[in-house]
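User: Fold this one for me? It's Glycosyltransferase family 2 protein.
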Amino acid sequence: MRTGKTSIIILTLNQFHHTILCLESIRKYTPEPYELIVVDNGSTDLTEMYLRQQPDVTLICNAYNKGFAAGCNQGLAIATGDNILFLNNDTVVTPNWLAHLLDTLYASPDIGMTGPLTNYSSGHQIIPVPYKDLLDLNAFAHEHQIRNAGKMTEVRRLIGFCLLVKRTVLDEIGGFDELYDIGNFEDDDLCLRAAKVGYRLYIANACFIHHVGHATMNDIQTVEQKNNVQYLMGINRKKAKEKWGEDIFDLIYKEDVKLSCCVIAKTETSLIRTLDSIKEIADEIIVVDRIGTFGATAAEFGAKYVAGHPSKNNIMQWKRAVEETESQYVLLLDEDEYFSDEMRRKIRVLKRSIANDTVGVAMICDHVDRAQNQAQIRLIQRSIPLLDDVRNLAAYDENVLISSIEIYGEQSVQEKDAIY
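Assistant: Here's what I get for Glycosyltransferase family 2 protein.
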């Protein structure tokens, strides 16, 4: 459920007429609670004078262009909203724009950022448009909204021309990295940092805003800055590689490892709770049914169904399930175990970052009986034979577990330093 006030942070650098259109559209089409924060990066036209006359604008004036990242961070430092919206001044918003963004942002606890579709952007956010004049913008946006109502698309990166972020996410990962100077790649960097702690990024498909593109960069005039977007992109891409050790796009689009979840069914209630907690992180789910009554529930979640045996222990049930898996890693869950929102985030991070030679991962699941919440090996490479005591850390030594055990959850296990 969407909540609270949204702080709209806008940077300006001349382009007076764009700023007027942007602010007027916000005032006209934003019934939700919001505050306007404008950071002017040294405008020499009428921009500053105009902004000082706007009673609903909190204004920060810089004597020179501090760049996109620094300017946004200045606005962020004084923002009081529960949600932070970074918005270019060369945009024109349309009816219901913020409602669609907020609905998508709060569709799930692990969604950290959202953005709209537009006429001018890189990546997945650009769509072809028929309108030639802003007079026809709202008519197009209305039809677009009807066609895409309720739709949302998960992506690996969102562009900073209109970027809505939960305040709690920015409190966790920080604002824009000012390493990137004037502009470009600071939004990619922010998206990567959000993904690295398990947040997902989505496009709110029903939201469409108009974007002119690079308006605030058109007044960069000095030879040193080389008024050339491609040049700036090359410089900042190199900075990103130096920071992260790899090309930033390789990291953003790195393929996740595939994960099969093997669940032993016990009761209808516990099975539904477990499946509901893993459906968004599992590439494949195998349900082992000991008593032959959970086929419909497995089908409801798109899971493979395996007939178990009521007299066999868990390891035998898991071995049967693993035979049906196709992923590189398998996650072994008891009947009463499930994942919290926080653990799902950590699993998502693990799928993107796990080293190829890691054969096992110990973690702490939530359990119906909280006394049983303890670190056990729950994830293992499919190619590793399952031991009879597969979940017990003590069952593995450095000869079997050839790489590190990664500890996830509320506590770590210190007594097995020999196998880290």
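One thing worth pointing out: The mean pLDDT is 86.
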